[in-house]
Design a protein that fits this description.
The protein is an all-alpha fold and 165 residues long. Helix content is 71%, strand content 0%. It has 2 domains: 81 residues, Rna Polymerase Sigma Factor, Chain: A (Orthogonal Bundle), CATH 1.10.1740; 63 residues, Orthogonal Bundle (Arc Repressor Mutant, subunit A), CATH 1.10.10.10. 23% of the residues are buried. This is SigE family RNA polymerase sigma factor.
């Protein structure tokens, strides 16, 4: 029987507490549950490999969030690495998707935003990061965060008004 190390216990504890939050963040970033699950899985693999360093960080959530956002940005920058989902009736029915975002108008409007604007909105308003923290995570200037936030919020407002009519 294999003994569980202190490293594994600490990592497992962190993941069990934060997995749902990470999955929801990934879903809000990419708008696809299956891709979100892949992003979280890749993030957790990277986190496990760097756990001794991550556990010593002042803010483990910030460390993990940065890994998650970078994994998402890598996927959007390198389209040749993405798998293409195809419908194949021989595989049978797929399992029902988890309803992470409530399928409401806000989530649909958020998915319509360009990648960078969506990332800024998720980091600023879902994670509650400051402009500076968002800029650091996305490796952009604070001015870009402000302008992308303004554009995204304007687009969201227009989309939500159209849904009400």
């Amino acid at each position: 029987m294999r003994r569980v190390s202190g490293r594994d216990e600490a990592f497992t504890s962190y993941v069990s507490q934060r997995h749902r939050h990470l999955l929801r963040t990934a879903y809000l970033l990419c708008g696809d549950l299956h891709l979100a699950e892949d992003l979280v899985q890749n993030t957790l693999v990277k986190l496990y490999m760097a756990w001794p360093r991550a556990a010593r960080a002042d803010n483990v959530d910030a460390y993990v969030r940065r890994v998650l956002v970078n994994a998402h940005l890598d996927e959007t920058r390198r389209p040749w690495r993405r798998e293409r989902v195809v419908s194949d009736s021989t595989l049978g029915a797929s399992a029902p998707a988890h309803d992470l975002a409530g399928r409401d108008e806000l989530t649909r409007a958020l998915r319509e935003l360009p990648e960078r604007q969506r990332a800024v909105v998720v980091l600023r308003h879902y994670w509650g990061l400051s402009i500076r923290e968002t800029a650091e995570d996305l490796k952009i200037s604070t001015g870009t965060v402000k302008s992308q936030t303004a554009k995204a919020l304007t687009s969201l407002a227009h989309s939500l008004q159209a849904c009400e009519q």
